[in-house]
Amino acid sequence: MKTILTGKVWKYGDNVDTDVIIPARYLSTSVPAELAPHCMEDIDETFAKNVQKGDIIVAGSNFGCGSSREHAPIAIAGAGISCVVAASYARIFFRNAINVGLPILECPDAVGIAKNDVVEVDLEKGTITDKTSGQTWTARPFPVFLRELIASGGLVPWVRRKLEGAGA
User: Does domain 4-166 have CATH number 3.30.1050.10?
Assistant: First the structure.
């Protein structure tokens, strides 16, 4: 996984819940490619049709509130989003995102980034640079082991890799 991510911003407000990230009517699967076409459809009809691989979501407070479903970060990653930057996250979404390997940064100061701006996120340093406006903010970067976990694709692949290494 790259530690520097660059993409166009999709902008959302406060309290974006898991029911609008991926509506319950699509929860019969957890396959990213099957969830992706329905990601954000109840809050933004244009998202799934126009999102590009590498794009970045910027949101307000309490992103991912609501049901404790892993489908939400799976759908976001499946849609091609490389990273989510938000003022704050619902704790269960925060953990689910890490568990499925979706990079997320918490940075209240960066929520002013505008839709369609181009943003560069350095996961190692925790910097978020709006290439359109020239502004830079710093979030608390994840420790090395969590960056490794995310780079592995999430908790299950990370544990699998660790166990395979232990048996060698």
Answer: no
